[in-house]
Amino acid sequence: MAEHARPPLSGDLAQRVVDLIAPTISHNINVMDEHGTIIACLDPDRRGTLHRGAQRVIAEGRGVLVTSPEPGTSDRPGANEPLVVDGELRGVVGVTGDPHEVAPLARVVALTVQLLLAQEYEQDAVTRRHTEARDLIAALSSGTARPAAARARLAAAGLAPPWSLALWAAAAPRPDGSAAPPGLAETAVVRINADAGHRAAVLHGALWLVGSGAAPAPRAPGLPPESRHTATAPTDDVGVLLAHAEEARALCRYAGLIPAAASGVPWSRTIAVAVAHLPPRTLENLAGRVAELNGALRRTVVAVASTTSMQAAADSVYVHRNTLLQRVERIRSVTGLDIRRADHLTTLQMALYACDALGETHTGFT
Description:
5-stranded antiparallel sheet, 366 residues, 9 strands, 14% strand, 4-stranded antiparallel sheet, alpha+beta
């Protein structure tokens, strides 16, 4: 995204710089804007007055010594130097005193002011990028954004289609079960927002990233390896991106529904999002359906749901097919649900995800 044009030199910013430098020298410092008006100095009565010497600096583009101030002006004897930031004349810096004595000091002070202003501008740019990123992600995940408005926001942020969305959360949820930001999240945000192709913010208890093209790898932002993570495939459809953002906000309500980045265990975004939208009592009721299943039986449900045959499921959990079938029968006797039936298998999957949502780990993707 192209940087915004520099705004006019701010009096508040210039005064902060003057107040910072003034104690180190024994002379008054003035900062004038690009029109020659004094916008910062140690004498409040001179602020807002026109400085003729500064106007000459602006007109001639060079330093000017004021030896005999014009009658009726607020000028004082001293040296005035151009204030240049990023190669652009932004104003004038003046140091009051014997012009020939303070001329070298004025040049040093002008360079110091330039450096301090450049730092302030850079910090302002960083803050602006963070604010824009947060506003963008908040709008995408709000559930009220219209596709045309969302597309315009993405374009303003310099993000061209296809778009992808990624989410990171801490391994441990908050006491209420919702997501908490992973360690080093704020550091990652600064690094990500420096990249023109991505925008990031900490929102809804997680680190969000929206960008052009494919989402970064789970460890790309330099977050702890145990962080929870999910990402979407790139899409050219802004409506799909909006749906993904709303889904991610729902997942943030229950950190346990966001898979661990390094787990490698099959995970269904569709089921996780569906479970995230269920009422609390429904979650508790579902989790109760599998409360008596041990770890081996729960892994059997996951294996059957993520493979295409009983043999493949048995191979995935490293047991004989007959052993797997015995477990299937055990699951049926305990829960009344036969995972060989698609509808019963879906119910069992949702029940296990409900366990994760409530913090009752089902030894699956958490």
